[in-house]
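An example makes the point: we print one protein in full, the chain in one-letter code, the fold tokenised, without further comment:
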Amino acid sequence: MMGTDLRVRVSNSMSKSEAKLECDWKLRRFLMLHSQALQKISNIQGNSPTPNMLTSRLASHVLAEMKEIGWDKVDSVDETFQQLTLTLCDTAGRKHVLLLNLSPQKEASEMCTVHLPIPADFNINQDEQVSLQDLMNQFRVMVNKCEDFWEMMYEIDQNTWVLEPEKPGPSVCHRRLALGPRASLHIKVDAAQPRLLPQCSFLGADQDVAPLRERLNKHVHQWNVHCSILENLQTVLETTLPSPKTSSREKFTLECGICYSYRLGEAIPDNVCGDQCCGQTFHHQCLYEWLRGLPSSRQSFNRIYGECPFCSKPITVKIDAPF
């Protein structure tokens, strides 16, 4: 169709909603073949151009670039052709989104929005015309850098009980893994080097987590960068982490002993009474408020010391947030 003159007739053009378009059969066939692509940009509304509407020449330029990168990668475009949503899939088929704001008022650093676990450093020269193909190529390079990280985290998500976050997104680098009914492990992974030993913090009663902490310190030299995070964790801790294949989630989602719920907003119980006969779990905020209201509690630096609401044995909580 490029360079071909075709006749188009518009009747009743005074009313956009009632206008009728008549065209050559070749053009009609072309439009039918590309109806899906046209549907993505058919949401331009309004009976008259707005002050923010791009000129037809600029709109044509954006359309040409969207065609160049492929209509399958264009998820949406607004009526001004200044806000675009582009997508691409990695080698595992995971879809990743690039949000573009091409408004002249935007700084170069504000033009691109992505959800990646690494810094998104797009190379954009604001004095030159932005190329969608160039931005997509840069985005693909970033996505490729993260694929090993996503594989590591996917294995963890599928084969362990992840207590937090409940629905981790592609940019989330931490996980809280169940080790037992009253013990868990919080890990924070370096997305740029996902096979290195992550930051590890044990949560739970000391009698439950102390042996695991000792094993980690003893066997940390066995960490193998050629193995996955999950494989290495189970090797250095000398244990198999609880899995959805072998246990139920209810075993690890114990309610808070103060508010009698598992979730308090986004938080889950992360403080445990250290008494072996008790072992009751509490939300950090619940226990903090409880101890702060007791006359017998005392504060030392950033901790409050008091009595467990269940067994009256000594218990402590940090004043600041756990993470």
